[in-house]
Each structure stands twice: as C-alpha cells, then as structure tokens.
Amino acid sequence: MTISSFNPPLRTLMGPGPSDVHPRVLAAMARPTVGHLDPAFIGMMDEVKSLLQYAFQTDNALTFPISAPGSAGMESCFANLVEPGDKVIVCINGVFGLRMKENVERCGGVAIVVEDDWGCSVDAHKVEDALKANPDTKIVAFVQAETSTGVHTDPLILCKLATRYGALSLVDAVTALAGVPVLVDDWGADAVYAGTQKCLSCVPGLSPVTFSERALDKIRKRSSKVQSWFLDLNLIMGYWGEGATRAYHHTAPVNALYALHESLVMLQEEGLENAWHRHAKMHLGLKAGLEAMGLEFAVDEMYRLPQLNAVKIPDGVDDAALRKRALERYGLEIGAGLGAFAGKIWRIGLMGQSATPRNILLCLSTLETLLSQANVKVESGKAVDAAQKILF
C-alpha cells in the first residue's frame, strides 16, 4: 500500500475545540525551523512570555507555555503544587472538575470534594464551609469555564476565599482565556492554566500557565521531588527564565511556538476587551437564532459561557446522526455532550476565529434544515433573521 500526503477536508469548527485557526497563524508555522536555543528563538520566547502576561493580565514572572496540550498544563499545576498528604478542595460541576480530583489523588493528595449540579456554577458558600471544616487545606481548585457544561464560575470570590484561609488557588482557564475576562493579578490567583486551541485560536498542543510568587515559594520548599520530571517547574524555570542564558530542558516545539506568538500578536492587535466583547456579541446572535428556532439552553443565563453554548437536544432527535450529517453535508462540527450531559446537549463553540457572524449563520441554517428533516417543527428563516438583527 502506498500512502500519499494527507490533505484534511475543510471544516467549520464550532465544537468545544479546537477552534478555527487564522491563516496568519497557519502561515507562521511554515516559517523556517531554528534551534530551540538559537538567540533569535530565545528572543521570541521572551515575547511570548510578555504576550501571555497580557492575555492573563498578570505580572507573574513565571508565565509561559507548557510544551504539551491543556491537560498537561493542568497536570503541571497539580504535580508541582500537591505533595503527598496535602488537602485540596476540588470544586466539581462537570468533567474537568473530575479530572482535577484525579490529579490530586495521583499526586498523593487528599481531595475534599465540593460538588454542584452539572449546569450550575460553583457555590462559594460550600467552598467556605469546606475551608472552615478543613483549616489545613493547601489548595482550592476549580474550573472557571467548564467546557463540558458551558458554565462560568466567577473566580474572584473563590480566589479571595482561598487567600483568606491561607490556601493557594488553582484555576482552570482553558476555555476562558481570551474569551471572557481572566484577571490573574486582580483575583490574586496563584496557579492558572489554559489551552491554545480555544479562544486563542491557535493550533492544539500548547498550554499557557502562570504561577504567583506564593505558588513558586511552595514549589521551591517541597519536601519531596515533583513526580513528573518533564513537568517539574524547578527544572523548567531554568529554560523559560530571564535572559539569553537558558539551561537545556527539552526541545521546544519551535514551529508551534511561532503559531502561538502570532495568535497572541493578533490578540494584542484586537485588544483583550474587544475580544471579550466580540465573544459576548456573537453569543447573543447565536442565542437569538436558537431561541427563534425553539431551542433551549441547558444553563441559566447568569452562568452561561458566551464561547461554549450548551443547547438542549429536542426530544426524538438522534444526536449522533444529526451531528454526522452536519459534518458530512455542511462541513460543520458541533460537539456532543459529556458525562451527565451525554446525549442531552450539543456543545456549540464560539471561540476565537470561530466566533464570527458567518459561522453563526451557517450553524443556524444547518440546524434548521437538519431539524426540519428530523420532523422537528421549526419556522423556516426565522432563526437567521433573529441572529442578523443582533449581529449586523
């Protein structure tokens, strides 16, 4: 068998990630590869750090991208901050809170679970009760933007609670960064991780992280080695530190970092607040169209993420079959539900370059056509008209 070059089909990505990647970012990846200790590359690394500090709204010196996807960003935070026996309050209101708990346990920590229903925000009162009941808690961990449910949790009160009770705060901002405000220094957050393939609209495979001085102090004073050599920040700090002299740690994904640099330059050009506003406006357009079609959201409006929309699947509709037809006929990818929401919701992403009027109108017209064919009563053209009133 002869295998030829792979040429992927053109898709419109409106699932939970990855999002559409701008041609500028793809073009950046095609630039000549240089050594990962080349002076020119080291200069670009410093720019990436500065641009990420802007995206995270932080002055944290240790702000950089882990050379692996968002899950590795999560693991880097837990592996470095959790020592055997440490109590960690883990807030669970979806799949990624469950993954946090798994990380705590694999690090030998003790997970104190604060659970809320899927589709609901984290209850700060429950968190404070857990802190009072466990005064020796080391970390409070929670998901700001729960990708599995489309729920937003306000990090400010949870970070402040952690600080008040002498604990560190650990925040999953994978789907949040560049889509809704992520204000690391204003919140007093101690460790935050994100992903490149969501609202940054970069290629998958990198995980921006940032650590406060309080977090770094805990890492430096560990009584045991970090269980992961690759993710040990004591080692990585020598590579992503300041200045031209870098200690070799690993071969960085050079061309992927070109892509991240370009996506962050584009974010800077647009402006953070403008990016937040764009995501909010695109959500309102999609919302108007979906509701005109008679569809409902699974999340209360107060806690709804603009960039990840959890939409209830109408009764009698074959979820997998409809998504397959959307992909094959219209090149449109929307996401399935996970866990408790499996088969009950679609996850429609409006992230980064995917958050455009064109994509929204394609999504609405596709759903309208396919739902009509599935014998769901919808009024032809009403969804697109409703969306256009918001978008234009």
Descriptive notes:
With 392 residues, the chain is α/β, with parallel strands linked by helices. The protein has two domains: 22-268, Aspartate Aminotransferase, domain 2 (3-Layer(aba) Sandwich); 271-391, Aspartate Aminotransferase, domain 1 (Alpha-Beta Complex). Helix content is 41%, strand content 15%. Strands 2-10-9-8-5-3-4 form a seven-stranded mixed beta sheet, with helices on both faces. A four-stranded mixed beta sheet has the order 1-12-13-11. It has a two-stranded antiparallel ribbon with strand order 6-7. A hairpin with a 4-residue loop joins strand 6 and strand 7 (151-152). Helix 1 runs antiparallel to helix 10, helix 2 (39-56) crosses helix 10 and helix 11 (272-292) runs parallel beside helix 13. The termini are far apart. The model has no long low-confidence stretch (mean pLDDT 96).
In angstroms, what separates the terminal alpha carbons?
52 Å
**Helix percentage range:** 40-55%
CATH class identity of the largest domain? Alpha Beta
Please, what is the CATH homologous superfamily of the largest domain? Type I PLP-dependent aspartate aminotransferase-like (Major domain)
Taken together, the total number of domains comes to 2
The name CATH uses for the topology of the largest domain is Aspartate Aminotransferase, domain 2
The spatial strand order of the largest sheet comes to 2-10-9-8-5-3-4
Q: Which radius of gyration do the C-alpha atoms yield? A: 21 Å
Q: Which structural class is indicated by helix and strand composition?
A: alpha/beta
Quaternary structure annotation: single chain
Largest sheet: 7 strands, mixed
| Mean pLDDT across all amino acids | 96
